[in-house]
Design goal:
single chain, 178 residues, alpha+beta, eight-stranded antiparallel barrel, 3 helices, globular
Length: 178
């Protein structure tokens, strides 16, 4: 019986290892975009009574925090939660959610970031988005690579993100990105 319990415990521990990122964080600051707030945007939701928006905090250390896709009318509530002790505890222990943290890089006017996406079964995999910086408050994502595809390839998209000043930002410390 002890032997079977040991096997079950080892399988559980080994199966819970956080997935790796394919992008490396690098040791350089984010250049070309403001980082004293958050970026809001996503796919064009024109015509909806309440737009769904994606919210990202980008940090100078190359970390990106995805607060989620939320109704525009609920944005303030989500931002307030991001600065609570409950948020900090939930995202920095072993039960933290890797689907909220990622790696963000800029190179001249190019931008790319990788975030793990929730799985409907099996291991969590990542999605990498690629785009261009228009100015220090706007960037556009034009392609994405979904690592859930059998043969991942870049697919077109059109996501526009605009900066909004916000303070204080949530801490970028997490268990997934060293």
């Amino acid at each position: 019986m002890v032997k079977y319990n040991f096997i079950i415990i080892m399988v559980t521990i080994l199966g819970c290892k956080a997935p790796e990122f394919t992008l490396s964080k690098g040791d350089y600051p984010i250049v070309g975009l403001r980082t004293d707030g958050y970026f809001l945007g996503g796919l064009d939701n024109t015509g909806l009574s309440d737009n769904v928006v994606s919210v990202y905090f980008i940090y100078q250390n190359g970390v990106i925090y995805y607060i989620g896709s939320v109704l525009d009318s609920e944005l303030k509530e989500y931002l307030n939660y991001a600065n609570t002790k409950d948020f900090h505890n939930a995202t920095n222990d072993q039960r933290g959610d890797i689907t909220q943290w990622g790696i963000f890089r800029t190179d001249n006017e190019d931008v790319e970031y990788e975030i793990h996406s929730p799985s409907s079964g099996g291991r969590v995999k990542s999605v990498i988005r690629y785009g261009k910086i228009l100015n220090d408050t706007t960037f556009i994502i034009s392609h994405f690579l979904n690592n859930y595809d059998r043969k991942p390839k870049k697919r077109p998209t059109h996501e526009v993100y605009h900066f909004r000043k916000y303070s204080p930002k949530p801490d970028s410390t997490n268990i997934f990105i060293k």
